Records
---
Amino acid sequence: MSDNSKRAFLTDGLSKRTSIFGLRLWVVLGIGVGAAIVLILFLLSLLCFTLRRNLRRMKNAQKTTPIVINKPTIPNVSKEITEIRLDNLRAEQKAGAPEPVPDSGPVNGSEQRFVVWPQNDDVPCGQQQRIHIEIGKDHRISHPERVMGSSSHGSGEQMSMALVALEASHLGWGHWYTLRELEGATNGFADENVIGEGGYGIVYRGVLDDHTQVAVKNLLNNRGQAEKEFKVEVEAIGRVRHKNLVRLLGYCAEGAHRILVYEYVDNGNLEQWLHGDVGPSSPLTWDIRMNIMFGTAKGLTYLHEGLEPKVVHRDIKSSNIMLDRQWNPKISDFGLAKLLGSERNYVTTRVMGTFGYVAPEYASTGMLSERSDVYSFGILLMEIISGRCPVDYSRPPAEVNLVDWLKQMVSNRNAEGVLDAKLPEKPSSRALKRVLLVALRCVDPNSQKRPKMGHVVHMLEAEELPLREDCRIGQEHGHSPHSSANNRLMDKRAIESGDRSGYESGTNIPRLAWRKPETVEEVCIDNG
């Protein structure tokens, strides 16, 4: 059969009318193929819809699942560090207490200073009272209401949400979060997600939509700060970048709510590892502790000397030193004192800090400077060395105050006696003496004689230095070689950091020499 004959046969066959409404065969075949294509597309669409619905259900299930912190990994230490007049704050929030909480101010405008000291001998280390001194009148503390995920928002809040939606959510340095986002991340600010509490606010662990873990700090005493002022201060903090500072990722400012979102540091804080249940031997070796001291000092140096204007932390303590999995320290809560509306000059009417860490001039007069942080850092060094709390009423009376006890031990030439009993191995005598000297300089009662944090960094990293220059120093200050032992001790020069076996005299003066020692314990360290 020729090609023309085949073509004519196919044409005649396809052109024949069928019994289906008299339609030609090629029309019926075309309808069948089209219907098959439509059916396949419908099935594919149905499959995609089902998969998306299942993924959405799984995502919602992850959000509503309570977040459990790995307690066996990080020692559990109570984080309820109470601030005066905020003791029952969370109970008031649940009971629907009104937002403003007035302070019990002074009568007739008279000056009032109020300090709470622990009165119970069984007060745990992690539950030390915060100092809160008020001078003047009309001081008020306010806190945002706890808004759960199912709560309804008023018309003002709806307007705020609309404004947020209109603006770009990404800032120059971070992210502007909505209240709804943070409620979802923390499961409605659920109690089981609380990882810390303090005078500034409650910290929750949260998981964002992109599965990023964050620390959400719900600020309590924001003093009704205006949204514009709050944003200006937060953006100043958000642009601070240093490896030893906890990074601020973003914030939320809706209605009365002031919330900060930080990176989540997943290895707890220094207080938990120093005072928690870690067994008979601490995982914090001496090298790790030195790394924590050095990193914290560098972070504080950056706040004091690397920023303009400088930032005074005001609340340096072990629970504000976060640790990552490599034991690198990160300072948290920096900038919050200024953020929460405190006065901008160096004399403040609102003294805040944690009992045991606050510099004496700050607690008594309200005089604030970076030297106040230096004092707190010195207390922190002593805490890291000894494993003891700054104030511990469970110990004998002579050992309650860490500074007094450590000075007494050093004066008795028992420097090694201050070491944490849980240290797996003791440091060298040189390393221990260097850190003790730094700590004693930092807690000098005279703030002007304390070293700056940049100087502290150099002292901690120094490898060698003469601790005293016996004969020359005695001659410089009018003492003969036959002076009494006490006079010789009082006139020895302790240099910035480290140790050197034996004593040096003569002309080798270090480039960053410390001032002449004024206490016996400072010059007795090398005699330990």
---
Amino acid sequence: MTQNTQHTSSEATSSVRMLIVGEGQFILDGQVIPVAAGSSVHQAAIAHIASQASGVVQVTAVDDGGTQQLQVGPDGTVTSVGTAPVPPAAESRATAPATTPTAQDTPQDHPARTPYTDRKTDTPVQQSIAAVAPEEVPQSRAERRASVTFLPGADEAFSGMTTPTKVGGWHGFLQSIGLEKRAEGPTPEQITERAELRAISQHWAGPRTITMVNPKGGASKTPTAVLLAAMFARWGGAGCLAWDNNETRGTMGWRTEEGPHEAHVRDLLASADELMRPEARAADLAAFVHHQTEDKFDVLRSNPHSIAPEERLTTSDFDALHRVASRYYRLIFIDSGNDESAANWLRMIEHTDQLVVATTTRPDHAEAARLVLDDLRKQGDAAAQLADDAVVVVAHADQDEAPSAEYLARFEALARAAAPIPYDPGMRAAHLRLDGLRPDTQVAWRHAAAMVADGLGQQRAHTA
């Protein structure tokens, strides 16, 4: 493959092509093209484009490192034109415009919040408005002596890293052929990525229950539960459970990998007492949950068969299941049903440490999300605190929709944070997998997971 740093205007340029690079494959103008194991996906993509070119091809190239504008010649010559304009999917992840919402949109007691804040430092990782430095209070000599240390704390050591990480994606590919200079230190994007992955990778003392709610069906509760569980399991390690707490027939079992059995929540409930005995082993749980071999978490399915009203889960049933889940898992992601009056729905809220409101950009889904926050806030006490500290995940329902900045601005006034998820055909796949999503979608889920992680530092008091 040859390289070039300039492209003369005398060369004919063919139509623009859209290239998205993923794990083991690339997508060219909507066509998925697999790449042999061990081969460079970026090099394979360039070679494929060159083999079809009759002249210089203008390429908009996307991967998890960002978007690049390239020119590819028939002989494999690559020219870096520079960073491309922010595409709609990326634009939707940007901070909402710094305009003040109208009075009816922003209650005085719930001002808009920054997208993600590290609670250890109370400092936003990404912030569009510079924070005002607090006035320094002089320390006494004794206080200064007590604070002296020559060892960096964990946060200081982490934030002080200056060695650039290995650069992947288009930046790494262009550096490897000499079209980009290697960075002297980590880029702002890499610093943000490190901070978010570090937040997601934390282990907290005691189990945490993260609940997905929206009373409307099809509002993306199941994808949100599955993909958040995948993100935390991939980066934080084992001990993550995705639980379908639907009062009737849920869909999580249909959209995730099936284990060597067909067990569901009723089977686990029948064995709950045995699993709580001192001699019970963690491996015994494998007979009841379905391990996701790629994304490293387990799934507890709802009953896939039609059930009579008297067979629905009761409050005591939910408590028994949650005791088992809390004994064997550190993070429990619950996909709720659509009936807010169901006993298992109400009890689920009482066990929740972090509320996640899932919605799409459809107005009826968004309105249902607003109403469930409003209803919880009216209950006061713990339920109101859950609503105040909620994270709203806003998924694009259609690829032709405009960026969701308006939705984000409104939800940031109603909850702690709001995270946009771009439209992705992988979200509609039969089986949900992180690697089945486009790179920019995976980054969006990482942002959302970091927002959720920021609310897990303090375990809430729950009803026994």
---
Amino acid sequence: MIFTERTSIILVGAALAFILGTYMPALIFAGWMLLLLLVTGLLIELRSFPVRSSFSVHRSYPKKMAVGVRNTVVLEIQSRSTRSWFIRIHDEPPDIWQMREVNFQDTLPPQRAIRLTYDVYPMHRGVFLFHTTTIEVKGAFFDLVRKRYAFASEQTVQVYPDFRMHTQPALLSVSKRNVLTSQRSVRRYGAGTEFESLREYTPDDEYRKINWSASARSGKWMANQFQMERAQHIMLLIDTGRLMGSEAFGLSKLDHAVNAAARMTQVCIAHGDAVGLMLFGSAVHSFLLPKKNASQRALIAESLYTAQLERTESDYTTAFQWLQRRQRHRALILVFTEIVDRYSSQILLGSMATLYPKHLPVFILMKDKALTEVLQRPVTQSDSAFEKGVTAELLRERDEAIAFARSRGALVIDAMPDHFHSAVINLYLDIKARGRL
């Protein structure tokens, strides 16, 4: 039970009447009358409130939410009362999501239900708990008191990596020879090295595509048409070491890598390739050999769901040796990792020697948007000048490390967070189109 501001004003008025009554006795009678009216009004309102069972609350939301993505929660408030009530609703989403308070107010019609919605943006993977939903009912007559009803609607929710390929209009829609990605739509006729069919030669075709025997038989120039190879092996390696802990757009680099790996899984399987996964840090935490069956996506999703950031350095040598012993088939190996200086680059390249040339490894890095923004800010005082100098040195060392890796023949993607996913997918498509596997 909560007393309203109106009740407080009446109490203050009665108190003033009693105080001033020492000088004007008639005011004491007015004070008693105010108290009598207040108590009468409170009794009437308290008797009018419905019992708790007159209301019910049902919360619904996606069975599995995606990290860093808008997910809609629906609250349905049902009334069995014969009276209309003005109510305030407070819901408690998981604490770790650091949301603003979820509050609504509305009029609940008699024996009807209302639906209220709000959006949540989970920033961590894992299992989380929704807590109590509270309904605060306004007094029916004088608004002297309000009554609260708490509904222990505790529910768990699982937050997974972002597998939204099928829900985005510009994302994945694959037929036998058509791949659409979030950045571009690519129909790969003439790309790749796997023969598909014959067609009439056009001036834009390369001479090496002319099929001489078919041209002789048909009496006109004919060209071979190729498609990208299918059933190739793609391995997604995700570094869970401490360097993957820095954040961009509310997500850690590890979570960005996990989401990119989830989307790559969709693209690879839809494109007919076998995709596998390895999570590694100080040790190998999860390993799935490349497969292209329907259950592989679910297995990869469960493994990505368990990826947790470590506070230690990653052991590249052990991870790559582990992979070399188990991955017999040549594969495109996408390593989501981070380097900060030439020393870490040398360690990574030294470990890479166990993979190359049997496999085609690619190192996928993410630029630090916060550091880039520091360099773009104007210098206003000595502290900011020092910060800018340190930042410039950090970025210089990182750029030198990347240049050193590329000079040794390594393929490196270094993309901003908002272009990270598309850069990975486009690289995969380009490698397949050029037949590098």
---
Amino acid sequence: MEGHGTDMRKWSLARAGIRRLLLAGACCLALLAVLGMAGSAQPSRQPAVPVPISQTCSWLARPAEGSTSDIAELAGQAGLNARFVPALNLWELTCAGGTSGADAFALRRLAESGAFEWLVPNRRVVIAAEPNDPGYTAQWNMRIIQAPAAWDITTGSRQVVIAILDTGISLSHPDLQANLWQNEDEIAGNGIDDDGNGYVDDRWGWNFVASSPNPDDDHWHGTHVAGIAGAVGNNAIGVAGTAWQVQLMAVKFLDRNGQGSFLGMLQAMRYAADNGARILNLSVSVDGDLTAEERRLLDEAVNYVKDRGAVMIAASGNAGASTPAYPARYPDIMAIGASTSSDERWWLSNYGPGLDLLAPGAGIY
């Protein structure tokens, strides 16, 4: 086996040029309560927000209570495909073919049809921006948080499940394999939803990008986050995680470009909470403010996770802004900013009201 530096550069657990707030530990959010499919013909209404062409050519719509409209037919008339997500009581409307924009007038007619309570663009969620200063070659972060003193008390517990909601986790990484969460109630590869959780063959987690049971990392970001949180310690391989013993649940909702959707984030959070995660880590950010409807969805999500005894910690964002980015800005989510090896706030880390604390986040190995 190669030495620490070579091994970790080889496996992407710590690459030169990687810096940011990748929390070695926790976070928590969750997902929406099951409200059931609604419906009632309502008087024609204006959409809750303007209906512009979405960045992702995708919209989220909450069905109106008691509505009897044929939403799939209405969507088709607007040049959209429609998919109902029962767990979230949401319709996902996407451009046919996934590439061309839908007609704005047709979208407005759809929003005003009375079939929906509201309709909003399914906005993009991305990994928090990376600092570009030179990389460190040692884990200064463990020393500055006095991890060795903590390890004298405990090196973690296999009873704790940390969900990494990100680009996935490398399932073959030698410094992570022993700590990967497995769904013990699922038999991999038999094509059956053995545990009845709605996800077939999810032995190793779930991939919401491809709707598949393979959450392997095709980027690197999620693997790096997982390593900081829970790389196996004292094994003469690579680096030591903050917790040497832990279970790391791979929940992939970001693609190979580090991008995902608001809906994908909500689905990932619900999956983690439903499958036993006590901590949910989201090192991602959403640009700008949320609409009232998006805040309602996030509120439902947070309450869902809290009801299951889980917590969430999210990156405050790395834009140098004077307020944390969502989802960290939400009051019941712990917002963590990035600090440097000199124990000061990294200059691009978001700060201001709502920031809960700083943790090592620039130049993490």
